[in-house]
Amino acid sequence: MSTSLIITIIVVAVVVIAIIAVAAFVLRRRKQQQEERQREARRDFGPEYERAAEEHGSERKAEKELRERREKVEQEIRSLPEESRERYDERWQNVEKTFVDDPERALDGADAVVADILKERNFPADSREEENRNVGVTYPGIVEDFREARRVHEEATGRGGDSDRESDLEHMRQAIQKYRSVYERLSEK
Description:
This protein is mainly α. It has helices spanning 3-45, 47-56, 59-76, 82-101, 103-120, 128-138, 143-158, 165-187. Helix content is 84%, strand content 0%. It is elongated.
């Protein structure tokens, strides 16, 4: 074998190894960036990220949909004026007072207060589920409380008289607490 052939083989081998090394580095870096984006999305969107990823069957699609939704919602919502905040504070106090004598009516009132705040703040929604999703992208820390409070409210106002009253009261009390956390976050400055 000639020296020039050996040198050519060595140069080709070094180039191939360099290309493989660069490709491995680039792929590893992309994977790290993707994992970092997913961690960031999980942190930004909380449980709504998992829900969207399951629904879309893809974390990338979920992340894209959530970021687009948040951008759209944040462009449309507005802050709550101080006068409105005071009015809602009074309404919320009435909800809490009502709970002792009429917990179902208190749940209706709590749901109405939250719904009115969402409407006044201009949260876009064509359905309850869309409203839940829009709250989820802007307030990921309360979206599960919001969903659970609404679920209990719907159960409490739609059931007959055959249920365990004490257990129902406890669920309604918990729903009022969840509505309160939602109310407080939506009405804060």
